[in-house]
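re: that chain from earlier
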Amino acid sequence: MLGVLAGIALLVVLSLAVYVHLHPAEGVLVLEYHHVADRVDDEEPLAERYFVPSADFAAQLDYLKAEGYETITMLDFSKAAKGKGTLPEKPLIITFDDGYEDNYTVALPLLEERGMKGEVYMVTNFIGRKGYLTWDELRDMQQRGIEIGCHTADHVPLVGLSRAEQEDQVRLSKLLMEWNGIKTVFSFSYPNGSCNAEIAELLRESNYLTAVTGDAGFNTFQTDPMFLQRVNIPRPRFGMMEFRLRLLRAELCSIFGINQHLER
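^ sequence. v structure.
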């Protein structure tokens, strides 16, 4: 019985893959990483889940390049949306949440070896802490093609906070980075994907151009820039097959309109 069910599941996946191949999703693919390291000393219970070993990360980058993806930044996307630039045929934005030091020591060299760039969403009050990026590292990354975005001041979910607390997390964190030599911060990542229309409006008032959620899918110029969709890439348990399935799910979500403008 289990064999029959497994066979049916495989047939469904293959059928969906063929459908996506014939009707590919259009738009910008955004990937969400955290740690890129072969081991993590972080004591948080979820740390094990959120790191991708360097060999797996390199293999994923190679696969994406072989598939024709070209990396851009969120600012590139924003400019193109306003008619001030063009996008490659298969645009890709590689993002890193929280601002771990291995983004600089491990991920950045692997990106540079392949001529790729990305985006780091930094929790500003974590800058300089053990295991996190320093101001010098952030400024150096920016000079080397990495865009720096904001992930609040303290990594707290914004929904449920008072308006004053939300403003502190959104605005003061942005100002702190810009005061310390980071180029204008235009992009934001919602901690835990916690967002709603009121918070999105606060971001617009605070001069952010884009914000990313945790909902899988591709993004077009018609996607609300404050609710951009992103594919989470956790530590792989089943190698490249798992990675490909996550990309397939994102394409299906876009094709069938799943996860559009979710608020929570």
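The CA atoms of residues 5 and 76 lie 45 Å apart.
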